[in-house]
Amino acid sequence: MKKERLNKVIDKLKENNFIVKVVKDEKEAESCVLKLMPKNSSVSMGGSVTLNNTELLKKFREEYNFFERFLQPDWESTVNVMRESLLSDFLVTSTNAITENGELLQIDSGGNRVAGMAYGPKNVIVVCGVNKIVKNRQEGYERLYYVGPLNSKRLKHNTPCNFTGKCENCSTHMRMCNFVSIIRDGKRPFGNVIVILIEKEIGY
Ligand code: SF4
Known about the structure:
Layout: H1 3-15, E1 19-23, H2 26-36, E2 42-45, H3 49-52, H4 56-63, E3 65-66, H5 75-84, E4 90-93, E5 97-99, E6 104-108, H6 112-118, E7 123-129, E8 133-134, H7 137-154, H8 160-164, E9 179-183, E10 194-198
Parallel strand pairs: 1-10, 2-3, 2-4, 4-7, 5-8, 7-10
Antiparallel strand pairs: 5-6, 6-9
Bound molecules: iron/sulfur cluster.
InterPro entries: LUD_dom, NagB/RpiA_transferase-like, UCP020269
Organism: Fusobacterium hominis
Protein name: Lactate utilization protein
């Protein structure tokens, strides 16, 4: 990515009250996240290919009060943890698109990620690669519906796009894209949203 384009996005994000940190790779992103989080604080994590490329999940389980939603015995317990995690000290997640105007766009099946990014957790840290940068909202929406089928396949949701590889505009129970959110401003009651931008292509 051209430096001027990246700088423009960073400036716009800052104008919109996001705190921005730029790192070169996943390892640096990981230490940047951990430095921001006092040990033993409570943390929830959004499902994310980007974050799965780091050791953060392991660290959260070992050194923090982690809202463990990934290893619950059944869906009801998973949903209960997701509800409780809306009161965490930190939500660490990724986003699906960042516009050149400095907005974050995300798509969600259950809604817990878009809910937590909007309200609840005291602090929100967003980790993402520069490949998520798009020109505008229109390009962002296109990116969201490119991501839907990929997530459907990854999470084995029984949706048409899992099999065809493209959005079929379904209305199935396990739809990947029930919730779409735009965060236009990073202001929050306890501290603004922190965006850690990794200067490489990672996740989707
Ligand atoms: S609407 Fe259905 S087919 Fe389209 S991306 Fe969402 S889950 Fe897949």
